[in-house]
Write a structure and sequence with these properties.
The protein starts with 6 loop residues before the first strand and ends with a helix. It has one domain: Rossmann fold, CATH 3.40.50.300. A 5-stranded parallel beta sheet has the order 2-3-1-4-5. The chain is of the alpha/beta class. The chain binds adenosine-5'-diphosphate (ADP), shikimate-3-phosphate and magnesium ion (MG).
Length: about 170
């Protein structure tokens, strides 16, 4: 892999801070940043509407195409993925091929507090706490493939970005 175009790819459960930390990393490295959910929303419509119209499988098809296109960009960049992008093996392989993959984690109670008043995540609507616990259980090993695991439970987003930058230097 050409290290000059290697991406930093953030994966992790909803609310672990992928979108937030990706902004800080891009600022600090002075490189481009893409958030697959934001790219999807700019081109296809809101995530909620896409789930409603095409179902989760239809959304995942769009997500995989967008992720492929972002990973193929011939320049260094930070890529924040959606929490479910890791569910497809094709996506996991493409992330590992093109990037340094960082899995952000956090405990369920912190995640619930971070996402409970946000209505943009269709999988969490209704009983947010119960949905977080159920989906976390389903995905308990989904993020294990990453190069680095980083627990953000008691870190600020800035501290999380600093740990990632340090790990990159030590690579
Ligand atoms: N380390 C953190 N500590 C406290 N709050 C955080 C942290 N990381 C993110 N947040 C907050 O949690 C919410 C979800 O963060 P976001 O970056 O959208 O997560 P993700 O993209 O992983 O779903 C946002 O309101 C954000 O400000
Ligand atoms: O985990 C998931 O299945 C999802 C995570 C969301 O992104 P964030 O992880 O950035 O919240 C978004 O892609 C969609 O609501 C589905
Ligand atoms: Mg996000």
């Amino acid at each position: 892999m050409d290290l000059r175009t290697r991406k930093i790819v953030l994966v992790g459960f909803m609310g672990t801070g992928k979108s937030t930390v990706s902004r800080l990393l891009a600022e600090q490295l002075g490189c481009s940043r893409y958030d697959s959910d934001e790219v999807i929303e700019q081109t296809e419509g809101t995530i909620s509407k896409l789930f409603e119209t095409y179902g989760e499988a239809g959304f995942r098809d769009i997500e995989s195409k967008v992720l492929d296109s972002l990973l193929e960009v011939d320049a260094r960049s930070i890529i924040a993925t959606g929490g479910g992008a890791v569910l497809r093996e094709h996506n996991r392989e493409a992330m590992l091929k093109h990037g340094f993959v960082v899995a952000l984690t956090a405990d369920a109670e912190h995640i619930i507090n971070r996402v409970k008043s946000d209505t943009t995540r269709p999988l969490l609507q209704g009983d947010v706490a119960a949905n977080v616990h159920r989906i976390m259980e389903q995905r308990k090993h989904a993020y294990d493939f990453a190069h680095l695991q980083l627990d953000t439970t008691s870190l600020t987003p800035q501290e999380a970005a600093e740990v990632i930058l340090q790990a990159l230097q030590e690579e």
